[in-house]
Write a structure and sequence with these properties.
Blueprint (H helix, E strand, L loop, with lengths): L1 E6 L2 E6 L5 E5 L7 H12 L4 E4 L4 H10 L10 E4 L2 H7 L7 E3 L12 E2 L8 E6 L1 E3 L3 E3 L1 H9 E2 L1 H7 L13 H10 L6 E8 L2 E6 L3 H5 L10 E7 L9 H8 L6 E10 L9 H7 L5 H5 L8 H12 L1 E5 L4 H7 L3 E2 L3 H12 L5 E4 L9
Parallel strand pairs: 3-18, 4-5, 4-8, 5-6, 8-12, 14-15, 14-18, 15-16, 16-17
Antiparallel strand pairs: 1-2, 7-11, 9-10, 12-13
Length: 361
Protein backbone atom coordinates (compact mmCIF):
# COMPACT_ATOMS: atom_id res chain seq x y z
CA UNK A 1 0.00 0.00 0.00
CA UNK A 2 1.29 3.46 -0.93
CA UNK A 3 0.86 6.28 1.59
CA UNK A 4 2.02 9.83 0.93
CA UNK A 5 3.25 11.76 3.97
CA UNK A 6 3.62 15.56 3.84
CA UNK A 7 7.30 16.46 4.06
CA UNK A 8 8.15 20.14 3.81
CA UNK A 9 6.85 21.41 0.47
CA UNK A 10 6.64 17.91 -1.01
CA UNK A 11 5.55 14.42 0.06
CA UNK A 12 7.41 11.29 1.04
CA UNK A 13 6.16 7.95 -0.28
CA UNK A 14 5.70 5.25 2.35
CA UNK A 15 5.14 1.72 0.99
CA UNK A 16 3.73 -0.86 3.41
CA UNK A 17 2.40 -4.35 2.86
CA UNK A 18 -1.30 -4.63 3.75
CA UNK A 19 -0.54 -7.10 6.52
CA UNK A 20 1.83 -4.57 8.14
CA UNK A 21 -0.59 -1.65 8.19
CA UNK A 22 -2.44 -1.04 11.44
CA UNK A 23 -4.65 2.03 11.69
CA UNK A 24 -4.19 4.82 9.15
CA UNK A 25 -4.91 8.41 10.17
CA UNK A 26 -4.90 10.57 7.06
CA UNK A 27 -7.81 13.07 7.00
CA UNK A 28 -9.38 13.61 3.58
CA UNK A 29 -9.04 17.24 2.43
CA UNK A 30 -12.10 19.39 3.01
CA UNK A 31 -11.95 23.02 1.92
CA UNK A 32 -14.47 25.82 2.34
CA UNK A 33 -12.25 28.51 0.89
CA UNK A 34 -14.93 30.62 -0.80
CA UNK A 35 -17.20 31.03 2.20
CA UNK A 36 -14.24 31.50 4.54
CA UNK A 37 -12.86 34.24 2.29
CA UNK A 38 -16.18 36.09 2.38
CA UNK A 39 -16.45 35.78 6.15
CA UNK A 40 -12.87 36.88 6.70
CA UNK A 41 -13.32 39.91 4.44
CA UNK A 42 -16.29 40.96 6.59
CA UNK A 43 -14.32 40.42 9.80
CA UNK A 44 -11.47 42.61 8.59
CA UNK A 45 -13.72 45.38 7.24
CA UNK A 46 -13.18 48.62 9.12
CA UNK A 47 -9.98 47.46 10.81
CA UNK A 48 -6.68 49.21 10.30
CA UNK A 49 -4.30 46.26 10.61
CA UNK A 50 -4.07 42.64 9.54
CA UNK A 51 -1.39 40.70 11.46
CA UNK A 52 -0.42 37.39 9.81
CA UNK A 53 1.34 35.06 12.24
CA UNK A 54 2.47 32.23 9.92
CA UNK A 55 2.90 31.07 6.34
CA UNK A 56 1.29 27.67 6.71
CA UNK A 57 -0.40 26.23 3.66
CA UNK A 58 -3.95 27.03 4.80
CA UNK A 59 -3.03 30.58 5.78
CA UNK A 60 -1.39 31.18 2.42
CA UNK A 61 -4.29 29.68 0.48
CA UNK A 62 -6.82 31.84 2.30
CA UNK A 63 -4.73 34.98 1.88
CA UNK A 64 -4.36 34.36 -1.86
CA UNK A 65 -8.13 34.20 -2.10
CA UNK A 66 -8.60 37.23 0.16
CA UNK A 67 -5.91 39.56 -1.25
CA UNK A 68 -7.95 40.95 -4.21
CA UNK A 69 -10.72 41.97 -1.77
CA UNK A 70 -8.44 43.87 0.60
CA UNK A 71 -8.61 47.69 0.54
CA UNK A 72 -6.12 49.17 -1.89
CA UNK A 73 -6.23 52.73 -0.51
CA UNK A 74 -3.78 52.19 2.35
CA UNK A 75 -6.46 52.08 5.07
CA UNK A 76 -5.45 48.50 5.92
CA UNK A 77 -1.86 47.74 6.82
CA UNK A 78 -0.63 44.14 6.65
CA UNK A 79 2.04 42.99 9.12
CA UNK A 80 4.17 39.85 9.39
CA UNK A 81 7.39 38.87 11.12
CA UNK A 82 8.91 38.14 7.73
CA UNK A 83 7.35 40.45 5.12
CA UNK A 84 9.51 39.07 2.33
CA UNK A 85 8.54 35.50 3.17
CA UNK A 86 4.83 36.32 3.09
CA UNK A 87 5.09 38.31 -0.14
CA UNK A 88 6.92 35.44 -1.84
CA UNK A 89 4.04 33.03 -1.22
CA UNK A 90 1.23 35.59 -1.70
CA UNK A 91 2.36 37.66 -4.72
CA UNK A 92 -0.74 39.91 -4.60
CA UNK A 93 0.60 41.33 -1.33
CA UNK A 94 3.99 42.27 -2.82
CA UNK A 95 5.07 45.67 -1.56
CA UNK A 96 2.25 45.83 0.99
CA UNK A 97 3.55 43.78 3.92
CA UNK A 98 5.21 45.65 6.78
CA UNK A 99 7.49 44.15 9.41
CA UNK A 100 5.93 43.32 12.77
CA UNK A 101 8.39 44.91 15.18
CA UNK A 102 9.96 42.51 17.67
CA UNK A 103 9.01 43.45 21.24
CA UNK A 104 11.68 44.97 23.43
CA UNK A 105 13.51 42.58 25.71
CA UNK A 106 11.54 42.63 28.96
CA UNK A 107 12.80 42.73 32.50
CA UNK A 108 12.13 39.49 34.37
CA UNK A 109 8.42 39.11 35.05
CA UNK A 110 7.39 41.96 32.75
CA UNK A 111 5.71 41.91 29.35
CA UNK A 112 6.48 44.13 26.39
CA UNK A 113 4.41 44.54 23.25
CA UNK A 114 5.11 45.21 19.60
CA UNK A 115 3.60 48.65 18.97
CA UNK A 116 1.64 47.42 15.95
CA UNK A 117 -0.65 45.23 18.07
CA UNK A 118 -1.67 48.03 20.40
CA UNK A 119 -4.58 50.37 19.75
CA UNK A 120 -7.35 47.83 19.22
CA UNK A 121 -7.62 47.93 15.42
CA UNK A 122 -5.81 44.71 14.50
CA UNK A 123 -7.20 41.45 13.17
CA UNK A 124 -4.83 38.52 13.86
CA UNK A 125 -4.81 35.49 11.55
CA UNK A 126 -3.03 32.14 11.89
CA UNK A 127 -3.52 28.42 11.29
CA UNK A 128 -3.96 26.51 14.52
CA UNK A 129 -2.32 23.32 15.72
CA UNK A 130 -2.31 21.05 18.79
CA UNK A 131 0.54 21.63 21.23
CA UNK A 132 1.74 19.79 24.35
CA UNK A 133 2.31 22.96 26.43
CA UNK A 134 -0.47 25.28 25.28
CA UNK A 135 -2.98 22.58 24.39
CA UNK A 136 -3.64 24.41 21.14
CA UNK A 137 -1.76 27.19 19.39
CA UNK A 138 -4.49 29.49 18.13
CA UNK A 139 -4.05 33.05 16.87
CA UNK A 140 -3.89 34.39 20.45
CA UNK A 141 -0.97 32.14 21.33
CA UNK A 142 0.63 32.74 17.93
CA UNK A 143 0.46 36.51 18.50
CA UNK A 144 1.89 36.15 21.99
CA UNK A 145 4.82 34.12 20.70
CA UNK A 146 5.46 36.66 17.93
CA UNK A 147 4.75 40.04 19.50
CA UNK A 148 4.67 39.89 23.32
CA UNK A 149 8.07 39.85 24.96
CA UNK A 150 8.20 37.71 28.09
CA UNK A 151 4.88 35.95 27.36
CA UNK A 152 6.46 32.61 26.51
CA UNK A 153 8.41 32.57 29.76
CA UNK A 154 5.33 33.60 31.70
CA UNK A 155 3.32 30.77 30.13
CA UNK A 156 6.05 28.23 30.86
CA UNK A 157 6.25 29.26 34.50
CA UNK A 158 2.46 28.94 34.82
CA UNK A 159 2.29 25.50 33.21
CA UNK A 160 1.63 23.53 36.41
CA UNK A 161 3.38 20.38 35.18
CA UNK A 162 5.29 18.82 32.30
CA UNK A 163 2.77 16.21 31.09
CA UNK A 164 1.76 16.98 27.48
CA UNK A 165 -1.89 18.05 27.20
CA UNK A 166 -3.39 18.38 23.73
CA UNK A 167 -6.52 20.34 22.82
CA UNK A 168 -7.12 21.34 26.41
CA UNK A 169 -7.11 24.82 27.91
CA UNK A 170 -3.90 24.42 29.88
CA UNK A 171 -2.51 26.84 32.48
CA UNK A 172 0.10 27.89 29.93
CA UNK A 173 -2.63 28.69 27.39
CA UNK A 174 -4.55 30.73 29.96
CA UNK A 175 -1.42 32.70 30.87
CA UNK A 176 -0.65 33.45 27.23
CA UNK A 177 -4.23 34.41 26.43
CA UNK A 178 -4.29 36.72 29.44
CA UNK A 179 -1.14 38.47 28.25
CA UNK A 180 -2.55 38.94 24.76
CA UNK A 181 -5.98 40.11 25.91
CA UNK A 182 -4.32 43.26 27.24
CA UNK A 183 -4.38 44.42 23.62
CA UNK A 184 -8.03 45.43 23.99
CA UNK A 185 -10.11 45.52 20.82
CA UNK A 186 -7.91 43.11 18.86
CA UNK A 187 -9.89 40.45 16.95
CA UNK A 188 -8.69 36.91 16.29
CA UNK A 189 -9.24 34.29 13.62
CA UNK A 190 -7.74 30.79 13.77
CA UNK A 191 -7.92 28.52 10.73
CA UNK A 192 -8.73 24.89 11.48
CA UNK A 193 -7.62 22.52 8.72
CA UNK A 194 -8.65 19.13 7.40
CA UNK A 195 -6.31 17.32 5.06
CA UNK A 196 -4.22 20.48 4.98
CA UNK A 197 -7.11 22.57 3.63
CA UNK A 198 -8.95 25.44 5.37
CA UNK A 199 -12.00 23.87 7.02
CA UNK A 200 -13.27 26.70 9.21
CA UNK A 201 -12.19 29.78 11.14
CA UNK A 202 -12.79 30.01 14.88
CA UNK A 203 -12.42 32.82 17.37
CA UNK A 204 -12.11 30.59 20.45
CA UNK A 205 -9.31 28.44 21.83
CA UNK A 206 -8.65 24.74 22.49
CA UNK A 207 -12.23 23.78 23.34
CA UNK A 208 -13.62 25.32 20.15
CA UNK A 209 -10.85 23.74 18.08
CA UNK A 210 -11.43 20.31 19.64
CA UNK A 211 -14.99 20.28 18.30
CA UNK A 212 -13.56 20.14 14.77
CA UNK A 213 -11.28 17.16 15.46
CA UNK A 214 -12.51 13.58 15.20
CA UNK A 215 -11.19 11.57 18.18
CA UNK A 216 -9.64 8.24 17.22
CA UNK A 217 -9.20 5.26 19.48
CA UNK A 218 -6.42 2.84 18.57
CA UNK A 219 -4.79 -0.05 20.40
CA UNK A 220 -1.07 0.54 20.94
CA UNK A 221 1.04 -1.19 18.29
CA UNK A 222 4.70 -2.21 18.20
CA UNK A 223 5.44 0.76 15.99
CA UNK A 224 4.03 3.96 14.52
CA UNK A 225 4.92 6.24 11.63
CA UNK A 226 4.35 9.90 12.49
CA UNK A 227 4.31 12.72 9.97
CA UNK A 228 4.13 16.21 11.49
CA UNK A 229 2.12 17.68 8.61
CA UNK A 230 4.53 19.21 6.11
CA UNK A 231 5.32 22.86 5.50
CA UNK A 232 4.52 25.06 8.46
CA UNK A 233 4.54 22.09 10.84
CA UNK A 234 7.90 20.34 10.27
CA UNK A 235 10.33 23.14 9.46
CA UNK A 236 12.29 22.53 12.68
CA UNK A 237 12.92 19.53 14.88
CA UNK A 238 11.30 21.40 17.78
CA UNK A 239 8.06 21.68 15.84
CA UNK A 240 8.13 18.06 14.69
CA UNK A 241 8.89 16.86 18.22
CA UNK A 242 6.03 18.81 19.81
CA UNK A 243 3.43 17.53 17.36
CA UNK A 244 4.63 13.92 17.57
CA UNK A 245 3.83 13.72 21.28
CA UNK A 246 0.12 13.81 20.56
CA UNK A 247 0.32 10.46 18.76
CA UNK A 248 2.34 8.46 21.29
CA UNK A 249 -0.75 6.72 22.69
CA UNK A 250 -0.73 4.63 19.51
CA UNK A 251 2.59 2.89 20.27
CA UNK A 252 3.64 0.65 23.14
CA UNK A 253 6.28 1.77 25.60
CA UNK A 254 9.58 0.50 24.27
CA UNK A 255 8.13 0.42 20.76
CA UNK A 256 9.45 1.94 17.55
CA UNK A 257 8.67 5.38 16.14
CA UNK A 258 9.46 6.48 12.61
CA UNK A 259 9.36 10.28 12.83
CA UNK A 260 9.00 12.10 9.50
CA UNK A 261 9.72 15.83 9.34
CA UNK A 262 11.89 17.86 6.99
CA UNK A 263 13.52 20.07 9.70
CA UNK A 264 15.01 22.27 6.99
CA UNK A 265 15.47 25.16 9.46
CA UNK A 266 17.38 23.02 11.93
CA UNK A 267 16.80 22.32 15.60
CA UNK A 268 14.40 25.11 16.48
CA UNK A 269 14.05 26.49 20.00
CA UNK A 270 16.80 28.25 21.89
CA UNK A 271 16.64 25.75 24.75
CA UNK A 272 16.90 22.72 22.47
CA UNK A 273 19.88 24.23 20.66
CA UNK A 274 21.66 25.00 23.93
CA UNK A 275 20.96 21.56 25.39
CA UNK A 276 22.07 19.80 22.21
CA UNK A 277 25.36 21.72 22.20
CA UNK A 278 25.98 20.97 25.87
CA UNK A 279 25.43 24.56 27.01
CA UNK A 280 22.84 23.76 29.69
CA UNK A 281 24.07 21.78 32.68
CA UNK A 282 21.98 19.68 35.05
CA UNK A 283 22.94 22.10 37.80
CA UNK A 284 21.57 25.03 35.79
CA UNK A 285 18.31 23.17 35.23
CA UNK A 286 17.97 22.51 38.96
CA UNK A 287 18.50 26.21 39.67
CA UNK A 288 15.62 27.18 37.38
CA UNK A 289 17.57 28.29 34.30
CA UNK A 290 15.23 29.42 31.51
CA UNK A 291 15.47 29.68 27.74
CA UNK A 292 12.59 29.69 25.26
CA UNK A 293 11.45 26.13 24.63
CA UNK A 294 12.64 24.71 27.97
CA UNK A 295 9.79 22.19 27.99
CA UNK A 296 11.26 20.52 24.90
CA UNK A 297 14.26 19.26 26.87
CA UNK A 298 11.90 17.09 28.90
CA UNK A 299 9.89 16.08 25.83
CA UNK A 300 13.03 14.89 24.04
CA UNK A 301 14.36 13.09 27.10
CA UNK A 302 11.08 11.20 27.56
CA UNK A 303 10.97 10.23 23.89
CA UNK A 304 14.51 8.85 23.98
CA UNK A 305 13.93 7.02 27.25
CA UNK A 306 10.68 5.29 26.29
CA UNK A 307 10.95 4.56 22.56
CA UNK A 308 13.31 3.58 19.77
CA UNK A 309 13.24 6.45 17.27
CA UNK A 310 14.17 6.48 13.60
CA UNK A 311 14.26 9.99 12.12
CA UNK A 312 13.64 10.73 8.46
CA UNK A 313 14.65 14.38 8.00
CA UNK A 314 17.26 16.73 6.60
CA UNK A 315 18.70 17.32 10.09
CA UNK A 316 22.50 16.93 10.15
CA UNK A 317 23.80 13.58 11.39
CA UNK A 318 25.70 15.45 14.12
CA UNK A 319 22.39 16.06 15.86
CA UNK A 320 20.13 13.23 14.69
CA UNK A 321 22.36 10.22 15.31
CA UNK A 322 25.07 11.92 17.33
CA UNK A 323 23.47 14.10 20.00
CA UNK A 324 20.01 12.52 19.95
CA UNK A 325 21.19 8.93 19.36
CA UNK A 326 18.33 8.34 16.92
CA UNK A 327 18.54 5.96 14.02
CA UNK A 328 18.53 7.86 10.75
CA UNK A 329 17.67 7.07 7.14
CA UNK A 330 18.03 8.67 3.73
CA UNK A 331 14.61 7.59 2.48
CA UNK A 332 11.40 5.98 3.70
CA UNK A 333 12.35 2.51 2.45
CA UNK A 334 15.58 2.51 4.45
CA UNK A 335 13.72 3.92 7.46
CA UNK A 336 11.08 1.17 7.38
CA UNK A 337 13.78 -1.49 7.10
CA UNK A 338 15.33 -0.22 10.32
CA UNK A 339 11.96 -0.18 12.07
CA UNK A 340 11.10 -3.74 10.98
CA UNK A 341 14.56 -4.96 11.98
CA UNK A 342 13.55 -3.93 15.48
CA UNK A 343 9.84 -4.84 15.57
CA UNK A 344 10.01 -7.96 13.42
CA UNK A 345 8.86 -8.27 9.82
CA UNK A 346 5.34 -9.26 10.77
CA UNK A 347 4.66 -6.29 13.02
CA UNK A 348 1.82 -3.92 12.37
CA UNK A 349 2.56 -0.20 12.22
CA UNK A 350 0.02 2.54 12.74
CA UNK A 351 0.47 5.49 10.40
CA UNK A 352 -0.38 9.10 11.25
CA UNK A 353 0.12 11.25 8.17
CA UNK A 354 -0.69 14.58 9.87
CA UNK A 355 -0.04 14.82 13.60
CA UNK A 356 -1.20 18.45 13.35
CA UNK A 357 -4.76 17.19 12.69
CA UNK A 358 -4.83 14.12 14.95
CA UNK A 359 -6.62 13.64 18.25
CA UNK A 360 -6.29 10.27 19.99
CA UNK A 361 -8.82 9.50 22.70
Amino acid sequence: MEIWLPYGDVESLLTLQAENLGELSDPAPESHIEELTQGLAESIKGRGKLVVCDCKRATVKLLKSLAPALPQDGTLKVYARSPKGLEEVVPDLKGRVLKLSPPQAPATGELTYSPEILGGTAFVLSTGEPDPLFGYIDSRVALGLSAVGGARRSAYMARGGDTPAFLQETPAYSAMASAVERTEGTAFGTIVTKGGEPLTIIDGGPKDARAHFTPQQVNPAKGVVIGAGGRGFDETFSHTLRLSLGVLKSVRKGGDILLVGECRDGLGSEALQMQTMGRISDAALRKGFYADGMEEIGYLGSLKENYSVTLLSSLPELYASGRFRFKTANNSGEALTKVFNSTGRGAKLHVCARACETLLS
